[in-house]
Amino acid sequence: MARAAAAGARSEPALQVSLLRAEDAQAGDVLDAGGYIFATPENLAAMSGKMKDFFDRTYYAALDQLNGRPYATLICAGSDAPGSRWEYSDRGWGLRAAGLGSPRPRSGATPERARVRGSNRRAGPEAAASPGSSG
């Protein structure tokens, strides 16, 4: 999903794109970027531990220095996870949601259905490469 989003962003000639794993990204990477796409799996209606660790490690170094920069989130959830939308970065860092679309509600998802189908995904990685896609 993250690789597809990076590939889609690279199709815009004016953008310089860096794809970093949460555990490898540092405060300097955050400060140097003009915008962000945060991609994470959904774990019990929350971001992954590695993503949480990233925010914990970089939060204070970037505080009050990113106000108004655009961001988007990509959350990979295998079943109905309405609580997985998080606004951690816009509340703390003052980022501005880029408005790339909103998640499509996934009515009728159950743990049994997710096990049977492997996931309740309606869109694959190709949707992440297309700005404005809501999956």
Q: What labels describe this entry?
A:
globular; 11% strand; 135 residues; Rossmann fold; 6 helices; 3-stranded parallel sheet; alpha/beta
Short recap of the structure:
The chain is built from 6 helices and 3 strands; from the N terminus they run H-H-E-H-E-H-E-H-H.
Can you walk through the features of this model?
With 135 residues, the chain is of the alpha/beta class. The chain has one domain: Rossmann fold, CATH 3.40.50. Helices cover 34% and strands 11% of the residues. The chain has a three-stranded parallel beta sheet with strand order 1-2-3, with no helix packed on it. Helix 4 links the parallel strand 2 (70-76) and strand 3. The N and C termini lie close together (11 Å).
Query: How widely separated are the two ends?
Result: 11 Å
β-strand number: 3
Number of domains: 1
User: What is the percent of helical residues?
Assistant: 25-40%
CATH architecture: 3-Layer(aba) Sandwich
Morphology call: globular
- Tell me what portion of residues adopts beta-strand conformation: 5-15%
Structural class based on helices, strands and sheet pairing: alpha/beta
CATH topology, by name, is Rossmann fold
Give the strand order, joined by hyphens, for the main sheet.
1-2-3
Helix count? 6
User: Cα-atom Rg, whole angstroms?
Assistant: 15 Å
| CATH superfamily (homologous) name | Flavodoxin domain
